[in-house]
Target: Toll-like receptor 3
Amino acid sequence: MLHAARSCIPTWVILVCTVTVSPYYCAASVQKATCSVQDGRADCSHLTLSSVPQDLPGDITALDLSHNRMTAAPPDSFKRYTGLLHLSISYNSIKTLDEGLCRNLPLLQTLNLMHNEVHLLQKENFKYCSKLTWLNMASNRLKLQEEPFSLLQNLKYLDVSMNNLKSARLGSQPQLPSLETLELKHNNFNTLKREDFSFLKDSPLHVINLMSSVSLQKLEPGCFKPIPGLRMLFLNGSRKGFMFISDLCSELSETAISAMSLRNIGLTNLTNKTFSGLKKTNLTLLDLSGNSIEIIEDGSFQWLSELQILNLTGNGIKHLTRETFKGLKMLKNLQLTKALVKSQKPSLPVIEDFTFQPLSNLETLVLQNTPFVNITENTFKGLMSLTDLDLSWSNSIFTSKKLSSKFFVSLADSPLRKLNLEGNALVGIEPGSFSCLKSLSILLLDRNYIHQTFSGKELEGLAQLQELHISNNVQQINLTAQTFASVTDLRVLMLGKSLQAETLNQDSSPFWPLSNLTVLDLSNNNIANIRENLLEGLENLQVLKLQHNNLVRLWKTANPGGPVLFLKHTPRLVSFEMDFNGMDEIPREAFRNLNQLRELNFSNNLLNNLRDSVLDDLTSLKVLRLEKNFITSVRPEVFRTPMSNLSVLVMGKNPFDCTCESILWFVTWLNKTNASVPGLRDQYMCNTPILYFNHSIMDFDQLSCKDMAPFQAFYVLNSTAVLMLILTALIYRFHGWRILFYWNILINRTLGFSDAKVEEGREFEYDAYVIHAEEDTRWVERRLVPLENETCRFCLDDRDSDIGMFQADSIVNNMRKSRKILFVVTERLLNDPWCRQFKAHHALQQVIEASRDSVVLIFLQDVHDYKLSRSLFLRRGMLRPSCVLNWPPQKERIPAFNQKLLIALGMTNRLQE
Ligand SMILES: *[C@@H]1O[C@H](CO)[C@@H](O)[C@H](O)[C@H]1NC(C)=O
Ligand SMILES: *[C@@H]1O[C@H](CO)[C@@H](O)[C@H](O)[C@H]1NC(C)=O
Ligand SMILES: *[C@@H]1O[C@H](CO)[C@@H](O)[C@H](O)[C@H]1NC(C)=O
Ligand SMILES: *[C@@H]1O[C@H](CO)[C@@H](O)[C@H](O)[C@H]1NC(C)=O
Ligand SMILES: *[C@@H]1O[C@H](CO)[C@@H](O)[C@H](O)[C@H]1NC(C)=O
Ligand SMILES: *[C@@H]1O[C@H](CO)[C@@H](O)[C@H](O)[C@H]1NC(C)=O
Ligand SMILES: *[C@@H]1O[C@H](CO)[C@@H](O)[C@H](O)[C@H]1NC(C)=O
Model:
């Protein structure tokens, strides 16, 4: 209750805040409030700034002011930051570039002014910018006047794309002696004139990007002459480019061109003349992707003897012959993805036998999504260097739908290492299909319809195989103990969503020969039954994927024969995935010795309370995923060890119980951990108690628990005290008199009866003057008189009053002679006027006069203190406790009473100081 009441306030505050402030807060949380500075770099982007902030450290070297609202860049506002090397004012609305800018920033190396509104650009603008190496003026409204760039002696990169420039000529005098890259994309000139690049005569230019210069359609002879060092030319997207493509090649013949990108320029056919101009060059990369090439004349590429990469992705080629690739003797990488036209069966494109024979150096051949009529025994003949063949998604090529050796005989001489047969609608694999692929290391058979029992013959001959992927077939593959007998060096085996559910429920595991296996994927197979020996011998296994199965029974305590601890054979496991299995229990021994495990995925199960220390062996854990379970409490007994080194925790969407016992430790951990916890604010919600329902666990008030500790101690102390008190009271109530009796005897044995001085006793004749009601005479005679002996004498009015003396005098006299005055208190005494008024009054007076502590009360009845004080002017509290005695009703307590009485009478009369 205590903590509930305390937590009320913050919760209430949060509620109100959320309701009233959230729109503003949301906007604010998207936008940063201030610049962030790190390692001398200030990021002031996206702040709606209209001027340069003046409160940044003076020694920053980089300043990003992009995406703001600046309309000018006044040089003086940069005065504080003279050490700047990099400045970006891109995506603002700056209209002019002040020469003072570079004067105030003498070290500036890169300047990004992309996407502004700079119009007039003159020589003066860059007067002081001699240090500049990188300048981006793309997407402005440039109007160049009088050689604006002529002073940029060190500039290596210049971008003037998207400025609607009418010419590529940026100057008339030779200039920019350091320029290497010129970006001229998306401008508006249709001709490259002979003199256009003459201003670059002295530049070591390597790259020109003329991408999407939409209207470019004419090249004047000699236009590239001034720049013989040109190595890369991008002409992508110039739709009319194809018209002058052979001119272009002739123009480039005198250059050092080595890479040419002609993507998406509308080429429809290649002739044996098209690239002839490149004969003298050393072109290594030619990108012709995204065109509409249908016809490639024989010998089209014969000029490109140095070509290494040819990209024909995305064309509509109908026919490839043994002459098509003639001359490409250095080609290493041929991209034919979607390069052949997709059409119906009768007119399927044809790849003739021996088509690839000229490509004796080809290493990578990609025929992805490239249907052609059929694979014959000569289709891939001559590919002496081929290591990587991609035939994925070309399903029409395997006419029989069943793989057999005839498809791959033409590859017998290739050192093929990787074969991709993904997505080919295959239904089965005949024995020995791969027997000629002796060096194959990676085989991909994912996304087919393979359904068969693998006897082991299918994989024969693949002695070098290290990776086998058969995921996403139709869950109809049966394994036997011999399936992998010929591929014992396997490292990666992917069988997700492909196995028949019961196939692993057999005495000997199909995986027994795979001692080098490191990755095993058995996910999405609906497997319910496996044996404990399934992973026996896989001592190198590092990754085990078992998610999306139905393994819940295996780890139940109630499982016949006990939980199936299949992880005990895999001590090197690094990653274990068990999501979506309906698991509601983790046995105590499940993760024993897995001290190398770094990632544990257990999300989307039904876990509730985990046993203490069940995760304690996971000392290397870095990633823990437990989201969407039924975890209510995150206790240190379970999670302290596995969470001690974590870098990623995913545990959201559990019904957390936000009480001190369940969540305090977790919230404390979250507050101080360096681990990344995605979705912490909105996916970690309290389910109970009601007070916190649907609040983030980060709203949990930890302080309420901190108070609990002293409170608990206090509670324990308190209740102990109360218990002790009750116990004491009970003992006292029933046996107190006995205890006191023995206590007194003990005291008296050691100290003697009286603490009164010996002399004191001698002044008095009697030990006590007894005052009692007439009616109690009998009690006095029966109980008190028998106590008399030589050391103890009572003065009784009836017996000891001086004969002949006036009664009152006699009383006074006797009182004087008595050391103590003993009242036998009953209702009757209080009603006896004589006793009450005279004797009591006198006795009291004497007590006061003599300042003696000399009154002893014996209660025969319970008498109210109030009455006592009214009648006898005495209160119990005025007397020492030992001088107030109660006559016990029980007979056996009478000796104790007598003892107490004697002690009371033996007390000294002096007031204790
Ligand atoms: C190649 O394309 C050009 C331009 O579209 C056309 O004029 C020429 O006839 C074509 N050549 C052949 C052989 O189809
Ligand atoms: C180019 O092809 C034509 C026929 O289309 C042929 O006559 C000519 O010899 C070929 N030239 C070369 C260099 O292969
Ligand atoms: C092409 O390469 C060869 C040998 O590497 C070299 O001698 C020749 O100058 C190069 N040609 C051009 C145009 O760069
Ligand atoms: C070939 O071109 C395609 C499409 O333009 C591109 O995605 C791919 O990266 C290119 N491949 C190579 C090897 O350059
Ligand atoms: C497939 O290739 C064989 C030669 O290996 C040929 O006889 C047959 O006609 C081809 N099939 C089709 C459908 O063209
Ligand atoms: C796999 O094994 C099961 C049970 O042994 C059998 O019913 C099924 O037909 C087998 N599937 C194939 C494709 O051999
Ligand atoms: C496992 O790998 C080692 C080292 O690569 C190799 O020597 C050994 O033959 C392999 N084991 C099997 C069963 O292939």
